Amino acid sequence: MSMVFTLISLLNIGLSLAQTPTISNGEVLKRRFGTDAYGSAQNSLKRDLKIAIFDNGFAGFKSGSSLLPASAQLIEGPKNPQKADDFHGLGMAMILWEVMGKPDTGVKFYLVNADGYTNFKAGVQFAIQNQVDIVLYSQVWTFGGNFDGTGFIDAQVSQAIRAGITWINAAGNYGSKVSEGSVSEQLTTPRYFTVLKKGAPVTLTLSWNDFDDSSAAWSDQDLDLFVVDEAGKLVGSSEKKQLGHIPGPGDKNVSAYARETLTLNGLPEGKYRIEIKNISNNFTADSRFRVLLESNESVVFNSATLDREVFPPADHPEVITVGEDSPVSSRAVLGQSSSKPDFVLPKAIVDFSDKTHARGSSVAAAIFAGIYAKLKQARPDFNRTLVLTRVENENTDFAIDPDFKRVNAYEVPADLQKWITPECEVGFSYAHQTWVLQVPFQPVEFFPELRKPQGLEIRRSSGGLSPKLWKTPSPDELKRL
């Protein structure tokens, strides 16, 4: 059986590739996120900073063009050729380079075709062998992980991290599109989605936490997926068999993986029920499942469970996961004191010369990677631990209190909006009834060693990385809310 792996592009930029567009708001991005505050000449690495952009396609890339540094090199994988019409990877590389200030020396870009697991795995080995410093990956996998940073996708990323590579990953754009639960306690709980406009395509992916660190392992835990309409009529199902071994001559409709997928086209308006059946009856008390719904704005997932939306490898505990401050950006709570994304960027919007625009967690991750690359050039010892330590030390109470839970700005009650000052745009957190706001900062405020020797004016921007406390309502004011 051939193994087919589906990657979900977090951003689909609808561009005509007759002429590759350029970024038109680069100066605004650099001012917003602070990288204009220190110059391109400051490079303490004494060597090229090596950056690998993993993606499915880099359509429009031409060696020697002005879109990327002259060092940029396309690395094809051993299996699937890059998608000829996919601009996504090139767009991410262009954003990263733009935020860095477009240096043409001191950097080496690798554009790595990571389309499919074989190419992804080969890309990791390439990055390790070539001593890459930073990997930017603006994709997630909708299966292959156990919802906790383990599984065969995260196992590959672990190899890169152990080799000293900083892995920066987009959080994904699955806000309010995921329902997760316990197999033993919540499998039979009804789950619903509503089609508001006829004809919207709906793809459902059911997965459960039975993935090994090896992609060659076969799951023996079996769930099946069904969708019925309001009249109780079956409209679709996915009933693959998970046998736990390579199928024999008589075995049909077999899957190696703990996954079922179902695509429904042309559904009439109405409410639909998702049903999941336990076929193998060999699950444990720790077994969990997820349902991901992919569609457009005309389909609402009524049963979405918040804080369970991050897929591998963005859920890896040692990856820097970056989201955008918007309702669609994914988030997840991984434990009592661990949540994703690690950083949320506001207004992660890129304008292109052909009047198109791009935003989402992909763009946010590319912007963050540009900021991180600037910091890495100035401080060779810069790494994930250092950036998180610097941020946590700014506000110790926020960083270590396990009762805090980050929520998106759109969820803050209207009565609390009066407490928000104009520069506070990143996101919010709360502990019980105490609200806390994450506020942006300029990288040079945390890292004074990055400041130019003369003439630098430190100013607060509307973008950044650091959480800081804001004014908390008094107990009397909270009672009135």
Q: What do you see in this structure?
A:
This protein is α/β, with parallel strands linked by helices and 481 residues long. The protein folds into three domains: 250 residues, Rossmann fold, CATH 3.40.50.200; 124 residues, Sandwich (Jelly Rolls), CATH 2.60.120; 83 residues, no CATH class. 19% of the residues lie in helices and 25% in strands. The protein contains ten helices and 25 strands. The strands form seven sheets. The chain has a seven-stranded parallel β-sheet with strand order 3-4-2-5-7-17-20, with helices on both faces. The longest helix is centred in the C-terminal third of the chain and has 18 residues. It is globular. The N terminus and C terminus are likely disordered.
Distance between the termini: 59 Å
Total individual domains: 3
CATH topology of the largest domain: Rossmann fold
The largest sheet is: 7 strands, parallel
The count of β-strands is: 25
Overall SS class:
alpha/beta
CATH architectural arrangement of the largest domain: 3-Layer(aba) Sandwich
Q: Low-confidence spans: pLDDT under 50, at least 5 residues?
A: 1-18, 392-413, 415-475, 477-481
Shape: globular
Helix content: 10-25%
CATH superfamily of the largest domain: Peptidase S8/S53 domain
